[in-house]
Design a protein that fits this description.
The protein is about 75% helix and about 0% strand. With about 500 residues, the chain is an all-alpha fold. The protein has a domain of about 190 residues: Serine Threonine Protein Phosphatase 5, Tetratricopeptide repeat (Alpha Horseshoe), CATH 1.25.40. The longest helix has 28 residues. The chain is globular and about 80 Å long. The chain starts with 15 loop residues before the first helix and ends with a helix. The N terminus is likely disordered.
C-alpha cells in the first residue's frame, strides 16, 4: 500500500466539488471501508455502483492494490453483463471528473478497465500511476501495458517512450531499458534515444551493484558504509550461496524485520531469505508471515505466496511417494497412495489458481494456467471457458486453441475440435514442437470422426496429416502405428 497524500490549494479551485476533493488526504482506513462496501455491492450484481465505490476508495489510497484488483475484477464482470453493452457508465465518469492528478489517474484506470485489450489505455493508466509515484501500481500496470504495446498491430514509439520514462521514474531500470529498446526498434534513426537507452543500461548496472556514488568520499561504493554491509550485499547477489552466508543473510533480515515489521520490502526480503534456507520451520514461518501480511494489507500477492509454499510442500509429498513406488513397482497399496496424492495435489493446485484468477481477472496467462488444470482433472467445460479467454493473449494463443480443441475431442465434440485445431494452424510462425502437437491432435480428431461417422473424405484427410507428420519427424510419438491404423480404416470404409 503506497504512502501517498495530497492536498489542493489555490484560488482557482473554489467549486464545492473541488473543495470536497481538496479535503481528502491519504487514508487507508477510509479506503478500506469503500473497498468492503464495493465487495458487498459487487456480490449482488450491482457492478456499476461497485465500480464507483472502488474508485472512491482509490481516491483515499491511490496505491492500494486490493482496490486495483477489485476495480478490474468488477470492470470485467460489468463488461460481461448486459449493462456492459452500453459502454462506460456515465454516472461513474461523473463521480471522478476533476482536474487533479488523482482525478486523471482514476479516470485512466476506468477507461482502461472498460477497454482492457487496448494498449493506448493501458499506457495512459501507467503514465498517470508513475506520475503519482505509485511504485507497486506502476509495476503492476507496466507488466500488462508493455506486452500490450508490443502486441499492437502498429506499435507506437511514443507509447514505449512513456513506458521507458515511467519505469525509470520508479527505479525499474531493467524494464525502462526494454521499453527504450522497443522504442528504438520502431525508430532506429533516433540517435539521441539510442544514447538514452545506453545510459539507462549503465544506470541499471549501477543500481544493481551500488555504484551510484562513484568518486565521492568513502570510495566507489559510498552507499556501503562498512565491510560487513558490503559482504552482505555480495552474498545476497550470489546465485549459489553457502550455508553460512544464508544463515547470516537470514539473521540480518530478521533484525530488519524486528525494526520495521510493517515495511513491505523488509517483509519480502525476510520471506525470501526463509525460503532460501528452506528448513521446515523456515517454510512454516514464511507461510505465517505471508498470511498475516495478507490479512493486514489485503494484498493478494501475500496470499499467493502462502499458496506457493503450500503447493511446494504438497508437491514434495507426491515426489516422495513416486520415488517409493519406483523402488517397489509391484506394491499395489503404494500405487493407490500415489494416485490419491496426485489427485489431491491436482485439486489443491486448481483451487490455488482459481483464487488467483478471481483476484487478477484480467491476467490471461493465469486464465491459461487455470484452464490447463481444469483440463488435467477432466473438467473440460470449465477448461474450454478459460481457453476461450486466454486465446486472446498472443503468447498463449496457439496452446490455448490446442488445449481447447483437445477438450472438445474429449467431450466427443469432434466437429468443434477439428475446427479449433484448424484455427490454431492458421497462426503464423508456430514453434516446431507446437506445430507438430497441433497437427497430431487434428489427425486424432479426424481419425475419431471418420471411425464414428464412416466418412471416407475425413479418413483420407487424417491420412494426409499423418503423412505430413511422418515426413517431418518419423519418430514423433506413435505416428508409424497411426498411419497404419488410418490406412486400415480407409480400407474398411471403402469396403462398406
Amino acid at each position: 500500500m503506497a504512502i501517498f497524500s495530497w492536498r489542493k490549494s489555490g484560488d482557482d479551485e473554489q467549486s464545492k466539488q473541488g473543495e470536497d476533493k481538496a479535503k481528502l488526504t491519504f487514508s487507508p482506513e477510509a479506503a478500506a471501508k469503500f473497498f468492503d462496501r464495493a465487495r458487498t455491492v459487487g456480490e449482488t450484481g450491482q457492478n456499476e455502483y461497485a465500480l464507483q465505490l472502488w474508485l472512491s476508495g482509490l481516491r483515499h489510497d491511490p496505491g492500494a492494490m486490493p482496490g486495483i484488483d477489485g476495480l478490474f475484477r468488477t470492470a470485467a464482470r460489468y463488461l460481461d453483463s448486459d449493462e456492459g453493452r452500453k459502454g462506460t457508465p456515465k454516472d461513474v465518469v461523473k463521480s471522478i471528473v476533476g482536474k487533479t492528478e488523482v482525478d486523471k489517474y482514476l479516470m485512466s484506470l476506468l477507461e482502461w478497465g472498460m477497454r482492457p485489450a487496448e494498449a493506448a489505455y493501458a499506457v495512459k493508466a501507467f503514465e498517470t500511476a508513475s506520475g503519482l509515484g505509485l511504485t507497486e501500481v506502476t509495476g503492476w500496470i507496466g507488466d500488462r501495458a508493455f506486452p500490450a504495446a508490443l502486441r499492437d498491430k502498429k506499435p507506437r514509439k511514443d507509447w514505449f517512450l512513456k513506458l521507458m520514462e515511467g519505469f525509470e521514474k520508479v527505479g525499474s531500470f531493467d524494464k525502462a531499458v526494454a521499453a527504450g529498446e522497443a522504442a528504438y526498434k520502431v525508430d532506429p534513426t533516433d540517435g539521441e534515444l539510442g544514447t538514452k537507452v545506453k545510459n539507462l543500461a549503465a544506470q541499471m548496472t549501477m543500481s544493481r551493484g551500488g555504484y551510484e556514488k562513484t568518486g565521492q568520499a568513502g570510495g566507489f561504493r559510498a552507499n556501503i558504509r562498512d565491510a560487513e554491509k558490503q559482504r552482505q550485499l555480495d552474498e545476497a547477489d550470489r546465485i549459489v550461496k553457502s550455508a553460512d552466508s544464508i544463515d547470516r543473510l537470514l539473521a540480518s533480515a530478521e533484525d530488519e524485520f524486528a525494526k520495521r515489521p510493517d515495511d513491505l520490502p523488509t517483509i519480502n526480503t525476510l520471506i525470501k531469505r526463509l525460503l532460501e534456507r528452506g528448513r521446515p520451520e523456515d517454510e512454516a514461518r514464511a507461510m505465517e508471515i505471508c498470511l498475516h501480511t495478507f490479512e493486514k494489507t489485503k494484498q493478494f500477492r501475500f496470499r499467493q505466496g502462502w499458496g506457493e509454499i503450500k503447493m511446494r510442500q504438497e508437491r514434495r509429498k507426491v515426489v516422495a511417494l513416486r520415488q517409493q513406488l519406483d523402488a517397489s513397482p509391484g506394491d499395489e497399496s503404494l500405487k493407490a497412495k500415489v494416485a490419491t496424492a496426485e489427485k489431491s495435489f491436482g485439486e489443491a493446485d486448481l483451487e490455488e489458481y482459481r483464487a488467483r484468477v478471481e483476484n487478477y481477472p484480467t491476467d490471461l496467462t493465469l486464465k491459461f494456467e487455470l484452464g490447463k488444470r481444469y483440463f488435467n482433472l477432466g473438467h473440460y467445460d470449465e477448461s474450454i471457458a478459460c481457453f476461450q479467454e486466454s486465446q486472446h493473449d498472443a503468447k498463449n494463443k496457439a496452446e490455448s486453441l490446442a488445449f481447447m480443441a483437445n477438450a472438445f475431442a474429449k467431450m466427443d465434440w469432434l466437429d468443434e475440435s477439428i475446427a479449433t485445431f484448424r484455427s490454431a494452424l492458421e497462426i503464423k510462425d508456430l514453434v516446431n514442437d507446437v506445430l507438430l502437437d497441433i497437427r497430431y491432435g487434428l489427425m486424432l480428431a479426424l481419425q475419431a470422426k471418420a471411425e464414428r461417422d464412416k466418412e471416407l473424405t475425413v479418413a483420407e484427410e487424417a491420412d494426409k496429416v499423418a503423412s505430413s507428420i511422418a515426413m517431418q519427424q518419423i519418430s514423433y510419438r506413435d505416428i508409424r502405428a497411426r498411419r497404419v491404423a488410418i490406412k486400415e480404416l480407409i480400407t474398411r470404409i471403402k469396403a462398406g
